[in-house]
């Protein structure tokens, strides 16, 4: 189907760590797992390897879904201890990135008031409508440029307005800032992640006090803003003792929203590229110098999140591999576990575009019952239901590729930025079927990799702040192209079948 996978189309794999580069730890917390990566950068070297991975399993208590934040912090400490053992107890720095929008509340003594609530919890239902009574969706978008998602931080704070914890709070820290605070004792709010709260004006890179007033949010809860590359403190003596690290170990603010780090880790040449950062979510769009705040952009549900070096990540959130992850979890719970590789091989042989669903539908946000919800969506649109696991997976991947196609096309149309290539980074870069289907759907070549783009972007920002690498994003991306294994997929055939599938989905499933 147009993929090119022989060795002639790959750059050499990363060199073994430990050459001329200095050692950095990149803490990368995803919605399903966390990892600590040990990277070496400097002197033309850029290499990375995982030293510790740990699960990120939410917990439901009393009807509320929470993050197990202390388990995540323990995983970070274990990872730093492992990294220290491999480097003789020395690290040149630490950087932290994670998913967006969620936060922890601290009291006046700096103690955590409760486990952070998971963005998939149902507490934000109806909150967008409550805020809209005070500030219209058009006005909100014109001031923040952020895509409407029901779990944005501003809606979480609207839902928590009468919560005693919020009343008692003296500080609000987004997840990566919370981990950094526990490591260093210093509080800050990193800008790329702050931009996802729907409280930042992307034109100024500062808080929108007008939005905060309308949402009745006390901006005094937030620590001072930091930008990628700013210092975020040094590891506390107790952290050094627990991890076995020695010396003064700086923590650097990176693109602490994992997508900001992932986009910094896109190995693109020039400006004419689109990116798709894949994992639990697919975030598809283009990199710009200024936000797009038009009403047409709002209606297309595009977001203007801030990126490294003053860039704007103009993108659309798509449900992503969450759909596949949830199907696998459900099948395993039902006593029919599926091995992913052979399942993807069977999906590749399943009928293409037999049924597709809207991968941006909020119906798919909550966990549980995903295969049946996908089948129900097919029934509602008059399409045949998947008959087995392979057809369900093919429906998921066809639907994601179709959503990627729409996002890339809309990003070009709305921003005026034309693209010649699509870069897929993150976990989905390993999924050759998804990469092939995306190339076919978009009618554009796809470059897949690196899978660990977020950790690499994290590492590069740290190394640059420490003086180990130099230059702007073009130079950092050049280093990526010269050191990371990439796989190329060319589109096969035309896009007519994808056009028909998109029209069928828009028309309720009718051909």
Molecular structure report:
This protein is an alpha+beta fold and 511 residues long. The strands form seven sheets. It has an eight-stranded mixed beta sheet with strand order 1-22-21-20-16-17-19-18, sandwiched between helices. It has a four-stranded mixed beta sheet with strand order 4-3-2-7, with helices on both faces. Strands 5-6 form a two-stranded antiparallel ribbon. Strand 3 and strand 4 form a beta hairpin. GO terms for molecular function: transferase activity. Its EC number is 2.7.1.-. Belongs to the FGGY kinase family. InterPro entries: ATPase_NBD, FGGY_C, FGGY_Carb_Kinase, FGGY_N, Rhamnulokinase.
Instruction: Determine the mean pLDDT.
Output: 94
Write down the overall geometry. globular
What profile does the largest beta sheet have? 8 strands, mixed
Low-confidence stretches: 1-18
Kindly report the spatial arrangement of strands forming the biggest sheet. 1-22-21-20-16-17-19-18
Task: State the CATH topology of the domain at 17-99 and 101-256.
Answer: Nucleotidyltransferase, domain 5
Task: Please state the oligomeric state of the protein chains shown.
Answer: single chain
Proportion in helices: 25-40%
Overall CATH class of the domain at 17-99 and 101-256 = Alpha Beta
Q: What is the alpha-carbon Rg in Å?
A: 22 Å
Class from helix and strand fractions: alpha+beta
Count every beta strand, where a strand is a DSSP E run of 2 or more residues: 22
End-to-end distance: 24 Å
Percent in strands: 15-25%
Q: Tell me the name of the CATH homologous superfamily of the domain at 17-99 and 101-256.
A: ATPase, nucleotide binding domain
Q: What's the CATH architecture name of the domain at 17-99 and 101-256?
A: 2-Layer Sandwich
Number of helical stretches of at least 4 residues: 19
Biased composition (Basic and acidic residues): 1-10
Keywords: ATP-binding, Carbohydrate metabolism, Kinase, Nucleotide-binding, Rhamnose metabolism, Transferase, Xylose metabolism
Domain Carbohydrate kinase FGGY C-terminal: 274-466
EC number: 2.7.1.-
């Amino acid at each position: 189907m147009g993929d090119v996978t022989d060795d002639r189309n790959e750059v050499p794999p990363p060199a073994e760590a430990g050459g001329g580069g200095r050692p950095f730890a990149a803490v990368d917390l995803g919605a399903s797992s966390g990892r600590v990566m040990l990277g070496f950068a400097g002197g033309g070297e850029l290499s990375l390897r995982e030293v510790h991975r740990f699960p990120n399993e939410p917990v439901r208590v009393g009807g509320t879904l929470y993050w197990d934040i202390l388990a995540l912090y323990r995983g970070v400490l274990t990872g730093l201890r492992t990294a220290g053992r491999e480097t003789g107890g020395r690290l040149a720095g630490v950087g932290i990135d994670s998913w967006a929008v969620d936060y922890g509340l601290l009291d006046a003594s700096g103690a955590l008031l409760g486990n952070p609530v998971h963005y998939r919890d149902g507490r934000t239902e109806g909150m967008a409508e409550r805020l809209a009574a005070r500030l219209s969706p058009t006005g909100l978008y014109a001031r923040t440029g952020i895509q409407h998602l029901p779990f944005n931080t501003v809606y979480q704070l609207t839902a928590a307005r009468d919560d005693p914890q919020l009343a008692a709070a003296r500080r609000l820290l987004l997840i990566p800032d919370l981990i950094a605070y526990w490591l260093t004792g210093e509080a800050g709010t990193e800008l790329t992640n702050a931009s996802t709260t729907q409280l930042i004006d992307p034109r100024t890179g500062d808080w929108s006090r007008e939005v905060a007033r309308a949402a009745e949010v006390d901006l005094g809860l937030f620590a001072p803003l930091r930008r990628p590359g700013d210092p975020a403190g040094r590891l506390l003596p107790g952290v050094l003792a627990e991890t076995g690290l020695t010396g003064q170990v700086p923590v650097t603010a990176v693109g602490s929203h994992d997508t900001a780090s992932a986009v910094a880790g896109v190995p693109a040449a020039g400006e004419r590229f689109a990116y798709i950062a894949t994992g639990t979510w697919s975030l598809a769009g283009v990199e710009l110098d200024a936000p797009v705040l038009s009403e047409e952009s709002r209606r297309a549900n595009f977001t203007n999140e801030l990126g490294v070096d003053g860039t704007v990540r103009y993108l659309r959130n798509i449900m992503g591999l969450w759909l596949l992850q949830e199907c696998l979890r459900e099948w395993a719970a039902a006593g029919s576990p599926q091995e992913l590789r052979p399942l993807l091989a069977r999906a590749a042989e399943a009928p293409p575009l037999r049924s597709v669903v809207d991968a941006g539908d909020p119906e798919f946000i909550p966990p549980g019952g995903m295969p049946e919800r996908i089948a129900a969506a097919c029934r509602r649109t008059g399409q045949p239901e998947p008959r087995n696991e392979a057809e369900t997976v093919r429906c998921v991947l066809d639907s994601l590729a179709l959503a990627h196609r729409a996002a890339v096309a809309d990003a070009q149309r709305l921003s005026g930025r034309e693209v010649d290539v699509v870069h897929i980074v993150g976990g989905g870069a390993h999924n050759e079927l998804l990469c092939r289907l995306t190339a076919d759907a978009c009618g554009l070549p796809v470059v897949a990799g690196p899978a660990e783009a977020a950790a690499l972007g994290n590492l590069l920002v740290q190394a640059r702040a420490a003086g180990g690498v130099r230059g702007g994003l073009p130079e950092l991306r050049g280093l990526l192209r010269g050191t990371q294994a990439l796989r190329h997929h060319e589109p096969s055939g035309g896009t007519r079948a994808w056009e028909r599938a998109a029209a069928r989905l828009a028309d309720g499933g009718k051909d």
